[in-house]
Amino acid sequence: MELRQEKTSTLKTLRGALDTGAMRRVRRTLDSLHPSEIARLLESLPQAERQIVWDLLEREYSGEVLVELSDDVRGGLIEQMGDDELVAAAEGMELDDLADLLTELPETVTRQVLTSLDQADRERLRTVLAYDEDSAGGLMDPNTISVRPDVPLEVVLRYLRMQGELPDGTDQVFVVDRNERYLGVLKFSSLLTSDPDIAVSDVMDRDSPSINVDMPDVEVSRIFEDRDLFSAAVVDEQGRLIGRITIDDVVDVIRDEAEHSIMSAAGLDEENDLFAPVLISAKRRAVWLGVNLATAFLAAYVVDMFQTTIDKVVLMAVLMPVVPSMGGVAGTQSLTIITRALALGQIETSNAVSVLKKEVSVGLINGVIWAAIVALVTLAWFKTPAIGAIVGAALMINMIVAAAAGYSLPLLMRRLGWDPALGGGVVLTTITDVVGYGVFLGLGALFLL
């Protein structure tokens, strides 16, 4: 809460300085902030003010700020930068951050950046770029420190002192054999508190997990969470050490996944710029609005099929929204739970049927309870037992269907290679609307005409 208030205060101070033209004050404010904080401030500014602040930023920090920005904002700033500025921004960056940035730079700039690196760093960078950005390989930092298991701790200490500067986030040394195969880790706590004459193998942690280079980044974050890791080794198919992942990279993954879940529920991209041009934002949002409109027409078509029933039994029109509305809520609950379970890897072939039975049972129980309540309210309101029975029956059927649909849709979308969070709500609403209207009006046509 305090950090959020501090950020709001900083943004207010920055905008006040911009409004008054106090550029020195703006520059002092920027100099006091971390690159990630500068990135969040830039994303919170309209494009004109954003460009002013960006031009005031020290070029030596611009690369670190760029990698913290969302894709849209970063792309807009890169378009305004010259080749020399981009090359300067890339200088001195950590290789894993540089790999993230290079994919969005012009080809001419990428060549210049690669040329400026020494042979070893160039090879390490190419290794990272060879992997999908959403995998452990795309996430890893190829800069690692490793030792052999038979080396005395005193030798390890001398070796670390010779390095002069350790990679950021280093909390342990990786232990490998002569073929660079990963064996475990030597934690700094053990290194500093143990007898310097004993070998690494005597105090190393052999149970510290390694991460396969092709593992999805979401699974990487789950391992860090489950094992309370600060860093972990990344290995290839032969078990050879090729890099490391640190907690700061994993926090970014967790944050991105949270934003993705929220934005995808509305069919949006979490990388969208809050201050993107109106026409671009309207175009992006129009796609799922169009899909929703098409599904609304489908529901309207179902209602139109029973127009005669509605004309003869006007009460049906009054009660008609109740059934699809309750089904929509019940289905959304199941959809959200199953989508989360898929993201956490909690649903597998062995337990899928059990989960389905549970969700349908929940839908059945809630359907019976709320169907009875709605039927009694309808009876007391309209004094028509038949209407009460029909709305109660329709509600129960729709809630059971909604629970089954909420379970099935994420699994089906995952099998088809689609993101279950993206547009699942629109499809579910269509199902609950069509089934709700169809069952309610169909029962009315069957028993009241």
Structural description of this entry:
This protein is mainly α. The protein is built from 23 helices and six strands. It has helices spanning 2-20, 23-31, 35-43, 47-56, 59-66, 71-80, 83-90, 95-102, 107-116, 119-129, 136-139, 153-163, 188-193, 200-203, 217-227, 247-264, 278-305, 307-312, 315-319, 322-343, 352-382, 385-415, 424-448, and strands at residues 146-147, 172-176, 182-187, 210-212, 231-235, 241-246. The strands form two sheets. The chain has a three-stranded mixed sheet. The chain has a three-stranded mixed sheet with strand order 4-5-6. A hairpin with a 5-residue loop joins strand 5 and strand 6 (241-246). Helix 17 runs parallel beside helix 23 (424-448), helix 20 (322-343) runs parallel beside helix 22 and helix 22 (385-415) packs antiparallel against helix 23 (424-448). The chain is globular. 32% of the residues are buried. The mean pLDDT is 83.
